[in-house]
C-alpha cells in the first residue's frame, strides 16, 4: 500500500496562483495511484466489478490487511482510465487528522484530473482552517456540478482516519455529490454508518474479504506464475486450507523454501499479526489471544470465558476493525478467525501462561459438552490434556461421533490416549471397532472384533448379548468389504440383516455392503431394488455417512455401465448435500467422506475430457483418499491424476504417484489396486518408449491375474489382458490366441453390462483386428465402439491409447470409413489434416515419394534399395531428407502421413 507520511505544509503560494496544478512534491505522490507490482495475477471475476462503479454512488473495498484491496482498486482505476473515464486518487494516512485537511487533499486529487474543479477550496491556502467541513464540501460539490465529466474518486486507506473526522469530511459530500460523481473507499474497517445511512442498497457496491480470498484455482495459478509446480495437488490444497485464500499468506508461502502442509507461519505474516496486536489496548489484546484457542465461538461462549462486558467489547472490536473475523452462519451467531491468525494467537496465549491457557481450553470444552457439541468438546478436551474428563466424555459421545462421520477423531483418541483400556465398557469397544474399520485400520479393527466375540461368549445368552454379537458380525462384514473380500463379506452381510438384531446404523452399513456386492456381480436390477438409506428426519443421525457411501457406489455403478454423465450428476448432488449439511452444522464437510464423490467424479470428468474440473477435484481430495475410501475410489482418482501428469509430460511425478499407489495397495493387501498401478506403469513405459520395462510390468500383471483372491471382480484378469494388447500395438502382429481372448472378454462385458471396460478393451482390440485381419473384420466392432463413445462422451478412452501420437495411430489402424467419426470425437479436422499431409508430400521428390510408398508397405531399407536398384546408403540419405521435409521422427510417422494424404 501507499504509506507516504506527509507532514502538513501550509502552501507558500496557493495552487491557484500557479495555475492550480503545482503541488508540493510529496503531496503529488498522495494523489497518484500506486504502481501495480510485477507478477500480479489477473483475477477477471473481481476486475469486472470496475464496470459497476459507474452505476453506483459508493463502492467499498473492506478487508483486513494483505487481501489485495489497493491492488484491486489500482486495477479498477486503470481499467476505467483505459475506457476514457476520469479517475482521481488519494492515499490517506494518520497525519490527515482533520476534516479540512482531508477535504483539501480531496480537492487536490480532483483538481489534478479536472483543473476547473476544487480550485476555490485550494485557493483558500492558509485560511482553510477558518471554514467548516460542510462549507468546503459545498464549494467542491458546486464545482463538480458545473463539470459534466463523470468522475470516479478513490480514497485508499480510509481506516487511518478517525471515524469522527471521516464523518465530518465525507457525510455531506456523499449525500449531495452530483450523480456523475462516484466514490470508492478502500480500507480495513467498516465505513461509519452516518456516511452511508441515506444510500439505498442499489447505490452501494461492497466487496469484502470473503470475495477477495483466492479460490483454489486462483491459488494454483498464482503458484504456477511464481514458478512453483505442485507435486500432486495435496501441497496446494493444504496451503489453500491453511491460508484460507489470504493473498499475503500465499505470497509469503511462495517465498519460503519448505513444501507441503508442514510449513511454518512465514515470518513476514507473523510480524504483521504482532503489529495488529500492538495497536490494540493491552486488555483487548490479551482477550483476543485467548480467543485463538477456539476453532469457532459465539457471543455466549466468549461471555462464559471473558465476562459479558469484555466479550461484547471484543466482538465489537473484531467486527469494526476487520480482525480476520468470519461469520459461520446466516444468523450471525457463530464466528471463527482466520486459521493463520488463530494459530498465531494460540501460540501467543500458550507463551504468556500455558497453565491458564489449558484451563481456558477445558472451560470452553465443558461449555461445548453441556450443549452436546461433542466434536468441539473432544477437540478442546484433547488440547487441554485432562484425560479423566476426556474418557468420561468419550463414553457419552462415541456413538454420536461415529454417527456424525467423525470416526477419525476416535481413531486419533485411540492412538493418543490409549482408549483400548481393558476396563472400557463393551458398547464403547464396539464403537471403537466401527471407527477403526471406517478409517481403514483393518488389522487392529479385526483383532478387536475377535476380542469382542470372545468376550461375548463369556456372557450369559440374552437379547442384549445377541444384539451385540450380530453388531460385531456386521462390523466384520464391513471390514471384509472395505478390504475387498466380497466373497466373504456379502454372505455374512445378508445373514446379519436376516437375523433381525441389527440396529438402524448397522443395517445401513450392511445395505451398503450388499450394494457393493451387487455392483461387483453386475447385478444391476438387484442393486437398484435395495431400500434407500434411512433419512436423518427419520431418526438416522448418521445419514450423510451412509448416504455418502451409497451414492458413491451408485455413481460408480453408473460409470461402469457407460452412463458417465449420470454418474457425475449423482456424485455432484452428493457434494452439494455435503455443502448443505456443513452450512447447517457450521463446520467444513468431512474431507475424508467428501473424497469419495470427488475422487470418483474426477475420473468421470477426466473420461469426458474435462481435464480442468478433474484436476480441481483431485487437488481437493487426493490427500484424503487413503484415509477412508474404498478401493475403486483410490484406483480411479490415482489413475486420473497419473494420466493428467502424463499429458503434461511430467512422467517422473507420475511414477512417484504410482509408487505411492502401489505402497497403498501393499499396505492394505489389495491385489486389485496393485494390478491397477502396474497397468498404469505399462502405459507410462510405452509412452516413454520403454518396451522392455513395460513387458516386465505386464508379466507381473499376469501373475496377479492368476492369484486366488476373494475379490469377486474381473479387474485383475482384465488389466493383464489389456496390458498385453497395448504391447501388441508396437508389434507386427498379435501373439496367437490374444485377439480370441479379447473377443471372449468383450462378450462377457457386453452380457454383464460392463460398458466402461467394454469401451476401453474394444478400442484397442478393434484396432489390432484391423491391423491383423483387415479393416472389414474390424468394422463392426469399431463402429459399435464409436457409437458408444459418442453416447457416453468418454473420449479419453480413445486418447489414452499408449502412444505419443493418437491421431497417427488411428490413421494407420482405423478403417478409413470410420476415420472421420474418430476425428470428430477428438475434435480434429480430418480434411485439414489430410490437406496438410498432401502439401507436405508435394515437397518430396519423385524418388522420395517412391521410398515413402515402399516404407508404408513395410519394407526395410535393404529391400527398398533392391527394388529401386540403388545402394542402402542412398536410401538412408533419402530417409533423412524425407524426415526433414515431413517433420517426422521415424518411418512409421512418414507412412501414416502417406495414408492420411
Automatic annotation (TrEMBL):
Gene Ontology biological process terms in this record: regulation of DNA-templated transcription
All residue ranges annotated as the HTH luxR-type domain in the record: 837-901
UniProt keyword annotation of Hydrolase present: no
GO molecular function: DNA binding
SUPFAM superfamilies noted in UniProt: C-terminal effector domain of the bipartite response regulators, P-loop containing nucleoside triphosphate hydrolases
Keywords: DNA-binding, Transcription, Transcription regulation
Entry superkingdom: Bacteria
InterPro entries (alphabetical): P-loop_NTPase, Sig_transdc_resp-reg_C-effctor, Tscrpt_reg_LuxR_C, WH-like_DNA-bd_sf, WHD_MalT
Pfam families according to UniProt: GerE, WHD_MalT
The name this protein goes by in its record: HTH luxR-type domain-containing protein
Amino acid at each position: 500500500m501507499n504509506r507516504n507520511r506527509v507532514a502538513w505544509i501550509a502552501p507558500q503560494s496557493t495552487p491557484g496562483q500557479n495555475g492550480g496544478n503545482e503541488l508540493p512534491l510529496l503531496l503529488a505522490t498522495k494523489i497518484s495511484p500506486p504502481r501495480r507490482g510485477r507478477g500480479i495475477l489477473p483475477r477477471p471475476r473481481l476486475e469486472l466489478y470496475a464496470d459497476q462503479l459507474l452505476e453506483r454512488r459508493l463502492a467499498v473495498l473492506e478487508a483486513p490487511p494483505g487481501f489485495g484491496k489497493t491492488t484491486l482498486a489500482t486495477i479498477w482505476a486503470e481499467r476505467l482510465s483505459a475506457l476514457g473515464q476520469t479517475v482521481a486518487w488519494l492515499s490517506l494516512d494518520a497525519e490527515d487528522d482533520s476534516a479540512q485537511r482531508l477535504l483539501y487533499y480531496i480537492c487536490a486529487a480532483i483538481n489534478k484530473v479536472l483543473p476547473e474543479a476544487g480550485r476555490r477550496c485550494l485557493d483558500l491556502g492558509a485560511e482553510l482552517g477558518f471554514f467548516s467541513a460542510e462549507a468546503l464540501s459545498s464549494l467542491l460539490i458546486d464545482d463538480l456540478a458545473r463539470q459534466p465529466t463523470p468522475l470516479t474518486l478513490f480514497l485508499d486507506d480510509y481506516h487511518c482516519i478517525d471515524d469522527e473526522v471521516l464523518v465530518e469530511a465525507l457525510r455531506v459530500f456523499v449525500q449531495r455529490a452530483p450523480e456523475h460523481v462516484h466514490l470508492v473507499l478502500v480500507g480495513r474497517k467498516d465505513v461509519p454508518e452516518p456516511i452511508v445511512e441515506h444510500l439505498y442498497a442499489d447505490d452501494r457496491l461492497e466487496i469484502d474479504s470473503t470475495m477477495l480470498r483466492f479460490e483454489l484455482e486462483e491459488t494454483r495459478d498464482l503458484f504456477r506464475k511464481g514458478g512453483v509446480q505442485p507435486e500432486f495437488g495435496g501441497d496446494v490444497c493444504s496451503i489453500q486450507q491453511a491460508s484460507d485464500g489470504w493473498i499475503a499468506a500465499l505470497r509469503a508461502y511462495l517465498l519460503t523454501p519448505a513444501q507441503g502442509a508442514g510449513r511454518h507461519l512465514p515470518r513476514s505474516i507473523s510480524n504483521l499479526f504482532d503489529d495488529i496486536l500492538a495497536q490494540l489496548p493491552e486488555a483487548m489484546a490479551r482477550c483476543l489471544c485467548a480467543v485463538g484457542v477456539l476453532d469457532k465461538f459465539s457471543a455466549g461462549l466468549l461471555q462464559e470465558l471473558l465476562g459479558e462486558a469484555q466479550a461484547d467489547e471484543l466482538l465489537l472490536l473484531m467486527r469494526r476493525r476487520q480482525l480476520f473475523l468470519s461469520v459461520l452462519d446466516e444468523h450471525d451467531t457463530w464466528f471463527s478467525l482466520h486459521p493463520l491468525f488463530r494459530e498465531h494467537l494460540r501460540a501467543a496465549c500458550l507463551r504468556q501462561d500455558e497453565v491458564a491457557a489449558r484451563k481456558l481450553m477445558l472451560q470452553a470444552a465443558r461449555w461445548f459438552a453441556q450443549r452436546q457439541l461433542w466434536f468441539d468438546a473432544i477437540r478442546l478436551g484433547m488440547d487441554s490434556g485432562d484425560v479423566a474428563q476426556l474418557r468420561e466424555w468419550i463414553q457419552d459421545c462415541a456413538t454420536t461421533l461415529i454417527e456424525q462421520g467423525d470416526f477419525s477423531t476416535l481413531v486419533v483418541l485411540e492412538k493418543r490416549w490409549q482408549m483400548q483400556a481393558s476396563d472400557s465398557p463393551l458398547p464403547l469397544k464396539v464403537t471403537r471397532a466401527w471407527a477403526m474399520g471406517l478409517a481403514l485400520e483393518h488389522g487392529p479393527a479385526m483383532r478387536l472384533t475377535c476380542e469382542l466375540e470372545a468376550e461375548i461368549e463369556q456372557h450369559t445368552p440374552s437379547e442384549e448379548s445377541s444384539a451385540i454379537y450380530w453388531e460385531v458380525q456386521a462390523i466384520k462384514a464391513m471390514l471384509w468389504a472395505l478390504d475387498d473380500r466380497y466373497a466373504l463379506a456379502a454372505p455374512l452381510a445378508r445373514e446379519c440383516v436376516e437375523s433381525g438384531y441389527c440396529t438402524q446404523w448397522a443395517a445401513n452399513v450392511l445395505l451398503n455392503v450388499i450394494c457393493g456386492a451387487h455392483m461387483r456381480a453386475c447385478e444391476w436390477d438387484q442393486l437398484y431394488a435395495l431400500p434407500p438409506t434411512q433419512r436423518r428426519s427419520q431418526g438416522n443421525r448418521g445419514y450423510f455417512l451412509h448416504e455418502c457411501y451409497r451414492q458413491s457406489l451408485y455413481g460408480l455403478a453408473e460409470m461402469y455401465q457407460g452412463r458417465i454423465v449420470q454418474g457425475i450428476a449423482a456424485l455432484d448432488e452428493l457434494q452439494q448435500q455435503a455443502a448443505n449439511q456443513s452450512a447447517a452444522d457450521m463446520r467444513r464437510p468431512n474431507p475424508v467422506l467428501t473424497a469419495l464423490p470427488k475422487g470418483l467424479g474426477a475420473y468421470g470428468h477426466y473420461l469426458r475430457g474435462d481435464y480442468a474440473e478433474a484436476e480441481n477435484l483431485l487437488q481437493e481430495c487426493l490427500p484424503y483418499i487413503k484415509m477412508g475410501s474404498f478401493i475403486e475410489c483410490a484406483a480411479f482418482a490415482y489413475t486420473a491424476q497419473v494420466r493428467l501428469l502424463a499429458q503434461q509430460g511430467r512422467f517422473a511425478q507420475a511414477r512417484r504417484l504410482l509408487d505411492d499407489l502401489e505402497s497403498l495397495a501393499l499396505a492394505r493387501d489389495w491385489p486389485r489396486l496393485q494390478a491397477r498401478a502396474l497397468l498404469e506403469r505399462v502405459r507410462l513405459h510405452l509412452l516413454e518408449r520403454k518396451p522392455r520395462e513395460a513387458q516386465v510390468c505386464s508379466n507381473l500383471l499376469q501373475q496377479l491375474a492368476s492369484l486366488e483372491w476373494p475379490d469377486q471382480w474381473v479387474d485383475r484378469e482384465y488389466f493383464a489382458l489389456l496390458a498385453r494388447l497395448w504391447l501388441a500395438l508396437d508389434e507386427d502382429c498379435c501373439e496367437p490366441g490374444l485377439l480370441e481372448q479379447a473377443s471372449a472378454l468383450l462378450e462377457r462385458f457386453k452380457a454383464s453390462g460392463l460398458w466402461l471396460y467394454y469401451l476401453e478393451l474394444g478400442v484397442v482390440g478393434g484396432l489390432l483386428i484391423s491391423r491383423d485381419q483387415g479393416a472389414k473384420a474390424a468394422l463392426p466392432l469399431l463402429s459399435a465402439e464409436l457409437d458408444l463413445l459418442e453416447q457416453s462422451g468418454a473420449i479419453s478412452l480413445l486418447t489414452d491409447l499408449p502412444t505419443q501420437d493418437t491421431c497417427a495411430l488411428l490413421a494407420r489402424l482405423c478403417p478409413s470409413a470410420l476415420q472421420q467419426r474418430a476425428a470428430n470425437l477428438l475434435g480434429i479436422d480430418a480434411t485439414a489434416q489430410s490437406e496438410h499431409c498432401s502439401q507436405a508430400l508435394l515437397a518430396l521428390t519423385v524418388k522420395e515419394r517412391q521410398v515413402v510408398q515402399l516404407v508404408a508397405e513395410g519394407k526395410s531399407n535393404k529391400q527398398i534399395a533392391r527394388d529401386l536398384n540403388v545402394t542402402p546408403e542412398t536410401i538412408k540419405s533419402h530417409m533423412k531428407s524425407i524426415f526433414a521435409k515431413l517433420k517426422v521422427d521415424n518411418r512409421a510417422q512418414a507412412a501414416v502421413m502417406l495414408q492420411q494424404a
